From TrEMBL:
This is Succinate-semialdehyde dehydrogenase/glutarate-semialdehyde dehydrogenase. It comes from Mycolicibacterium lutetiense. Its EC number is 1.2.1.16, 1.2.1.20, 1.2.1.79. It holds the Pfam family Aldedh. Coiled coil: none annotated. It is an enzyme of class 1 (oxidoreductase). The active site is at 260. Belongs to the aldehyde dehydrogenase family. Keywords: Oxidoreductase. The keyword Cytoplasm does not apply. GO terms for molecular function: glutarate-semialdehyde dehydrogenase (NADP+) activity; succinate-semialdehyde dehydrogenase (NADP+) activity.
Amino acid sequence: MNTPNTQNAIAELDAEHGILIDGQTRGAASAFEVYDPATGRTIAEVADGTVADACSAVDAAHRAFGDWAQTSPRHRSDILRRAFDLMVADTERLAALICAENGKSQADARAEVGYAAEFFRWFSEEAVRTGGAYGVSPAGGTRTFVTHKPVGVAALVTPWNFPAAMATRKIAPALAAGCTVVLKPAAETPLTALAIAGILSAAGVPDGVVNMVPTTDAATVVESWLRDDRVRKVSFTGSTGVGRVLLKQAADRIVNASMELGGNAPFVVTADADVEAAVAGAMVAKFRGGGQACTAANRFYVHASVVDEFVAGFGAEVAALRVGPASDPASEIGPLVSERAAQRVAAAIDAAVAHGAVIAARAEAPAEGWFVAPTLLTGVAPDAAILADEIFGPVAPVVVWEDEKDLLRWANNTEYGLAAYVYAGRLQDALRLAESLDAGMVGINRGVVSDPSTPFGGMKQSGLGREGARVGLEEFQETQYFSVAFD
Ligand code: NAD
């Protein structure tokens, strides 16, 4: 896909003037480079937004808020539905941009566009279900109405690993609720976000409702938003460390905060699981996006009675993975997003091996570019360092378990609580395990949990709030009630 089409798609964005404020794009005194992770080469230069741009973006969002909040739910719904249609029709261009700046395979990029577009469709459907309640006070004599209002101008901050889906998962509910937004995409992947801004404008989103400030100075730009009285909401997806920083900043003005943070998902296989299905699920749960997903299976806990069969099947699949640039349609796994990420993951493998882990299978990977060969590790001790943090790369460590109490202790021994996976023969066993896991989302005999109609989010230090489902819209609303004299 890295053909002239990709170059055209990038050129059309005019990313050097990629700061979007009040429907106008503008440049900046300086620009920053976006790289193709498969080659390390520069593919675009993007206007490097400043605090002044960030402030102008809030000016525009604040000006647009009154009118947008007053539009009818059906009007907002129709616009979001058009955005869905336009996005689906534009799948190839968007997938090419994702491949170019993120590096994931063509299949993964197309799947992301489909998933991302679904948030526009889902929230176009939710936008018109305005809800509310009418109640009678227990003592009588009073009636109560409960209603909802958009929270106000929302600051959205997104990561590089799903450059389309993390943007639409926030923009769609915000717009459905009647909020206006200022968005800061990750500096690694601003191009996809800019393309989505164009789609929203073509769908009929008025000027000023969606504003974007790409920047290399994330800390200062986002802090300026959190200090601005006109910003009433922050919705962040990224690492737990940055989430903590933003929550502290949000505390100063009690800004409504939604946090989608890091994960460390356990993947459990029981003695009576369908091992073939577990291997297929493990491939998806581990290797989608090269393992760079917050929901990625990070630790495989496999019952001793099936571990040999699981490792043989999983190992054969891992070794057969086609690793290469996204420009090659046959590539199943791309590079990691940056040289630093590739070095970090390679070092984690080396450290695990130095502490006794065994490389049970490994795929071939190109020597140039920011690639790490997909690797299956066995002989991993339950307290090994590689199990403690997000690997965020194509490495699968396998731990053997026999006693369910040990399994649950190990699986829950983490500050994270985002996703988990359970493969078990009997549904009641799977449910018992799932209920015992501290995870906001559990895939049962499935390697995927993401679904726009469901509440996506984490427990413990994996986050606050949920995205998707009905609750994703409520995160952008205030509840208001009227107490009405009745006699
Ligand atoms: P990151 O936290 O480094 O960056 C995320 C975003 O925050 C980027 O836009 C970045 O520019 C910005 N940022 C960085 N420092 C900032 C600061 N001091 N103040 C304000 N903004 C700042 O994370 P990443 O490396 O881009 O993404 C990977 C992380 O995101 C992983 O931990 C992953 O698990 C997590 N993630 C979570 C979910 C989820 O839904 N829970 C989804 C995708 C990714």
